[in-house]
Amino acid sequence: GQSLEQPSEVTAVEGAIVQINCTYQTSGFYGLSWYQQHDGGAPTFLSYNALDGLEETGRFSSFLSRSDSYGYLLLQELQMKDSASYFCALRGGGFKTIFGAGTRLFVKA
Amino acid sequence: KAGVTQTPRYLIKTRGQQVTLSCSPISGHRSVSWYQQTPGQGLQFLFEYFSETQRNKGNFPGRFSGRQFSNSRSEMNVSTLELGDSALYLCASSGTGENTEAFFGQGTRLTVV
Predict the structure, then answer these.
(1) 3 state DSSP class of B83
(2) Mean pLDDT score of chain B, rounded to an integer?
(3) Cβ(B93)–Cβ(B102) below 8 Å
């Protein structure tokens, strides 16, 4: 089967850089996605890595290493509004997307 | 264009009852997936439909079922409700292809008492 692990909580200061890691176990997959979810809101798509390497979208970057079964989301110039839960997700075979349990990011002033 | 619409937003049911939740995907999207979200458990995959066919199913009991209509709207049904079924149920729609992002609705908050 497929499974993903990510830290349950991360705390960082406004203006800093934070990295949220995601390790996974799977027999095969198309790519790794990241989603953001604010309290009471719906998850929204942030980024997708189909290939190894870094993908940059503004203040957010995501990285994938298939050989290490590992990925991360990097958030730069943290803002208070970045306080949310972040989920990594595997888009696998069988048209199934599996999500991690989520990392709660607290941004302090 | 309109986003994913889920109805109702909130629901309170009694143990043993059944419930039907509805999801209208983004126009043109034919894939609809359902997830159960509980605190600390992330999003647990329930099932995925494409063109009225269930293509995959998660590890949930048979009390959880779903269907998709010809207009891509989807419903999920939970029979014989248990207290543990209390959760946020999220629906996501996506286009074709293996790397398309999923667009989520606001969810239905189900409380079983």
Answers:
(1) helix
(2) 92
(3) yes
* CA distance readout (Å), B110 to A18, A95, B29, B43: 34, 26, 25, 15
Closest-CA distance, A23 to chain B, in angstroms, reads: 15
Tell which residue, B91, B89, B84, B88, has the closest CA to residue B112. Answer: B84
Expressed in percent and rounded to 5, the helix, strand and coil fractions of chain A are 5, 60, 35
Q: Which residues does residue B66 pair with via DSSP β-bridges, in sequence order?
A: B76
> Is the CB of residue B34 less than 8 Å from the CB of residue B46?
yes
Considering only CB atoms, which residues of chain B are within 8 Å of chain A?
4, 31, 33, 35, 40-45, 48, 50, 55-56, 58, 90, 92, 98-99, 101-107
Amino acid found at B23 = C
pLDDT (tens digit per residue) in B36-84: 999 877 899 999 999 999 988 999 999 999 999 999 999 999 999 999 9
Distances (CA, A) of B49 to A70, A95, B2: 29, 9, 20
Three-state SS for B84? Answer: helix
Instruction: Label residue A40 left, alpha or beta by phi (over 0 means left) and psi (-120 to 50 means alpha).
Output: left
Q: Write the CA distances from A14 to A11, A61, A86, integer angstroms.
A: 10, 17, 17
